[in-house]
Each structure stands twice: as C-alpha cells, then as structure tokens.
C-alpha cells in the first residue's frame, strides 16, 4: 500500500475530499517528524510506538578487503508494534 492508496482510503472512509486527506496526512507526518526530531516518543494506541534510538560507534570490517573500519554512531527510528496489532497478523 502506497501513499496514494492511503490517501484514497482516508478520503473515502472519512467522507472528505482528496485534497483534505492530503493536508491531514501531511500534517500527521510533519507532526511525527517534529516529535521524533525533538527526542520524543510517539504512541499510537492499538498500533504501536515510534522512538529514536542511537546506535553507538563501533568497529566493523570491510567484507571485500577484510580491513577494520570505524562505523560512526547514528540515530535510527525504532518501531514497536502494540500487542493487539501483533495478534492481528
């Protein structure tokens, strides 16, 4: 399911125009991005939670040459599905 499919479904289910669905979806995504950039956690009851985790710097190995390299620390977004969502799969 892509963005277009989601917008069409939102429009149909909520009884709103496609333009209104696009604005609502954009607002949702920008709000989620702001919350995660600020270090917050997003909880969607019945679906799951999103939070930013930091992967610390570590040593790795180049698979082609076998030489040791330093992998820098980075942030990633972690998703934990809710129990009810897990059981629907």
Structure description:
With about 90 residues, this protein is α+β, with helices and mostly antiparallel strands. The protein has one domain (about 5-89): IHF-like DNA-binding proteins (HU Protein, Chain A). About 45% of the residues lie in helices and about 30% in strands. The strands form two sheets. Strands 1-2-5 form a three-stranded antiparallel beta sheet. Strands 3-4 form a two-stranded antiparallel sheet. A hairpin with a 3-residue loop joins strand 1 (about 40-45) and strand 2 (about 50-55). The chain is elongated and about 60 Å long. The relative contact order is 0.13. The model has no long low-confidence stretch (mean pLDDT about 95).
List the helices and strands and how they pair.
Layout: H1 3-14, H2 18-37, E1 41-44, E2 48-55, E3 58-61, E4 68-71, E5 74-81, H3 83-88
Antiparallel strand pairs: 1-2, 2-5, 3-4
In short:
The chain is α+β, with helices and mostly antiparallel strands and 89 residues long.
What name is given to the CATH topology? HU Protein, Chain A
Mean pLDDT: 94
- CATH class wording: Few Secondary Structures
**Name of the CATH homologous superfamily:** IHF-like DNA-binding proteins
Biggest sheet statistics: 3 strands, antiparallel
Q: Roughly how much helix do the residues carry, as a percent range?
A: 40-55%
The radius of gyration is: 19 Å
The string of secondary-structure elements, in order, is: HHEEEEEH
Kindly, what is the distance between the CA atoms of the first and last residues, rounded to a whole number of angstroms?
Answer: 16 Å
In terms of quaternary structure, the protein is: single chain
Which architecture per CATH? Irregular
Secondary-structure content class: alpha+beta
List the total number of helices: 3
Order of strands, main sheet, comes to 1-2-5
Q: Beta fraction of the residues? A: 25-35%
Poorly predicted regions are none
Give the total of beta strands. 5
Q: What general outline do the C-alpha atoms trace? A: elongated
Total domain modules = 1
């Amino acid at each position: 399911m892509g963005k277009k499919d989601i917008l069409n479904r939102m429009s149909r289910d909520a009884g709103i125009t496609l333009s209104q669905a696009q604005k609502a979806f954009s607002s949702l995504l920008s709000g989620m991005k702001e919350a995660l950039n600020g270090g917050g956690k997003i909880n969607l009851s019945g679906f799951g939670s999103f939070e930013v985790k930091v992967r610390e710097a570590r040593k790795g190995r180049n698979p082609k040459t076998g030489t040791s390299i330093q992998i820098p620390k980075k942030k990633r977004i972690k998703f934990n599905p809710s129990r009810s969502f897990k059981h629907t799969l």
